[in-house]
Amino acid sequence: MGKSLEEINSTVSFDAEANAFRKFLMYLGPGLLVAVGYMDPGNWITSMAGGAQYGYILLFVILISSLSAMLLQSMCARLGIASGMDLAQVTEHMTNKSLGIFSWVLAELAIMATDIAEVIGSAIALNLLFNIPLVLGVTITVLDVLLLLMIIKLGFRKIEAIVGVLIFTVLVIFMFEVYLSSPETSSLFAGFIPSSEIVTNKGALYIALGIIGATIMPHNLYLHSSIVQSRNYERTDKGKKSAIKYATIDSNIQLSIAFVINCLILVLGAALFFGSHEALGRFFDLYDALSHSHVGGAVGGALMSTLFAIALLASGQNSTITGTLSGQIVMEGFLKIKLKPWLRRVITRIIAVIPVFLCLWLYGSSETKIEDLLIFTQVFLSLALPFSIIPLIMATNNPKIMGETFVNRTWMSILAWVLAIVLSVLNVYLIIETISEFM
């Protein structure tokens, strides 16, 4: 079986003789690309809606989702380093042809759902910043393939650095905005305690599943299992053990940053708007509310809304990079078909903009309908997630794939199976409740 993402495999130097801190710095990077998927526009819309509509109670969902993500991404890193294969290659190896094609289609749909969120987020940001009509904004997002091509030519390490700067920009913006909004501290910390309303309130459950789908994204599992192999570590048990250690540290640090950003987004919505604006929680609503906010005076309101739109644009463009890499990994792993990155990007983006254009055609430039489509993509990701998690668990429990040394520890396996089962049950419950509304 060929190498995963052969053009970047083993291209980043890794000195096995360096001290621990230098090893960490050499491995710092793949976690950044993974973390992007945990703070894309899909996360924003679900976290904002959750905060504005239900206050701080869904902070618990963000916490559990982030801890679950750390577990799953560490398993992905372990899989990629120990087996030398990514999740798509392993799934194709473990299944028959029909099941493999089904898994590929589902993975592609998940990537498409992610791309739709990026398209909508970027188009809305362009509309907020420059008053560009949504139809034109969506069209412009197709051209970001040119931006991606220029970034790829800089080298993989440069890509990681650019992504890191954009993530830091988003983090600083939201820290500043939450500071100005002065959230109620006691209610904020109480939000990390589980509440029965999350399950009993169908609206809250819908948003909670959206947060889960936006936080633990299927394409990230494929992505991480591949890009951890970009480091030129020794392909021996000792070298792999060291690489797994630093890959896990890198991943956990970056996902902790993503956790903070998602909490800040929800807190901003809750602190400024919970209890006073029932329909609030969407990008346009929040931008307008921030513009007219009395926090920091008239200048403060204009600054907050502008920074919000800039962060949204940065988030959408950041996600473009990882979406392209994930699509390439999935296609090569399942179908063993290699396309040039620019061609793959054009195909993926054109397919993704079709439902967005269709929505705009049916409803005009309806802000509500466009944002409803974005929330639906996140719930779809949650529904698709078990089909990525289960092969991951099976593969990392298999000594023939991992080797006896690198199979999951018992507690990791138990937690992962519990997560897969709980998520599946919640998904079935949501589907039944949704269907019952129309009967």
From TrEMBL:
One Pfam family from the record: Nramp
Membrane protein topology class: Multi-pass membrane protein
Annotated transmembrane regions: 20-39, 51-72, 101-126, 132-152, 159-180, 204-223, 255-275, 295-314, 346-363, 375-394, 414-432
GO molecular function ontology, one term from the record: manganese ion transmembrane transporter activity
Matches recorded under InterPro entries: NRAMP_fam (IPR001046)
Top-level taxon of the source organism: Bacteria
GO process terms (BP): iron ion transmembrane transport
Coiled-coil blocks: none
GO cellular component: plasma membrane
Alphabetically ordered keywords of this record: Cell membrane, Ion transport, Membrane, Symport, Transmembrane, Transmembrane helix, Transport
Subcellular location(s) of the protein: Cell membrane; Membrane
Predominant subcellular localization, coarse grouping: membrane
Described purpose of this protein according to its UniProt entry: H(+)-stimulated, divalent metal cation uptake system.
Family, per entry: Belongs to the NRAMP family.
HAMAP family assigned to the protein according to its UniProt record, in alphabetical order: NRAMP (MF_00221)
UniProt protein name: Divalent metal cation transporter MntH
Species of provenance: Mammaliicoccus vitulinus
Gene responsible for this protein: mntH
